[in-house]
Amino acid sequence: MIEGHGDDLHRYDPGMVHINFSTNIYQQADHTALKAHLFDKMDLINNYPEPQPRSLEKLIAQRLGISPEAVMVTNGATEAIYLIAQMLHHSASIIPQPTFNEYADACRINHHIISYENTDELKTLPNDRVYWICNPNNPTGNVMTKGIIEYMVRRSPRYTFVVDQSYEDYTQERLIKPQEMIDCHNLLVLHSLSKKYAIPGLRLGYVTGHPDVIQLLRSMRQPWSVSALAVEAGKFLLTRDTPIIPDLQAYLKETQRLRENLRQIDGVRVFETKTNFMLCQVEDVTSTKLKFYLVHKHGILIRDCFNFTGLSDHFFRVAAQRPKENDALVEAIRGYLNKDE
Fold first, then answer.
1. Is 192 helix (H, G, I), strand (E, B) or coil?
2. Among 35, 213, 280, 304, which is most exposed with the fewest C-beta within 10 angstroms?
3. Shortest CA distance to 26 belongs to which of 171, 228, 231?
């Protein structure tokens, strides 16, 4: 487990951070109805939850138009990552970098041979391999086209592909729909209700795949890994099915405006993105120093990326907020780098 994934808001005193750019999850969600519903369901904590959250799995399957046996609800997408690595223990795993470090951590615990897609290494790896693809990718915001993934999966049946679509609701790019490739034994797709509905504290995700593979995955999970309140929240939100981001197109347009404004700052490089967050690089200072300045002088929290494999302490990630907040970030960084403060 890498400290700092998600965000590290918990490290700061209450009230110290006024604008949180470090989490990729939408920050303006209205959870009033959900909170009221869960308050009325508090008696659920008096008893054990379902050993396996089958009721929620059935609802998800109904929404997707697939068999409930092709869905497994997990304690966030992260539980699915570790279960898959356990199921495929001692495999050769290919993990293109930079990306979410939990893939490598899960593989390392389960004795995988890990390659970061180095050409020379690929020549010597066993033919039975696991490819981990974060799509949209964290922290870069890149998106691999749906057609390429479909081609790779169907062309290479000996390889297992784990496609993490946790941020699928934060992009307008076409991604894999579970019902389109449920026949493939070599594909598992990860989904995150925590991100879809902006409820990361409840830890709720699911994995879809061929029923035979999902059955094997179920046999490795611990009972009661998903709490009763998380299951109830999932059912409530899926039944209402109200988009947590009111206007995704407008939000992504604002993301691009933030990106362009950051690019105008001397000494800052901003990479292209297809989602709501972006990877940035500073030249003359470290991201750690910049982060310290922003949080202590402006109450602004960014995500320094030094603990992503392949990135140095000159990289940081931000997720777009509201226009006024985005402008405040740009001005604060410009002021620091130009020594105007």
1. strand
2. 35
3. 171
Distance CA 79, CA 227 (A): 13
pLDDT digits (tens, 9 = 90+) for 25-76: 999 999 999 999 999 999 999 999 999 999 999 999 999 999 999 999 999 9
Pairing of the two strands 303-304 and 268-270: unpaired
120 three-state secondary structure: helix
311 vs 15, higher pLDDT: 311
Chain centroid to CA 92: how far?
23
Positive or negative, the Cα torsion across 261, 24, 136, 232? negative
Query: What is the pairing mode between strands 71-74 and 205-209?
Result: antiparallel
DSSP string, 133-179: EESS-TTT-----HHHHHHHHHH-TTSEEEEE-TTGGG--S----GG
The residue type of 97 is: Q
Residue 58 CA to residue 233 CA, distance in Å, equals: 15
3-class DSSP assignment, residue 209: strand
Please state, in angstroms and rounded to a whole number, the distance separating the CA atoms of residues 130 and 159.
6
For the chain, the distance separating the N- and C-terminal CA atoms, rounded to the nearest angstrom, is 37
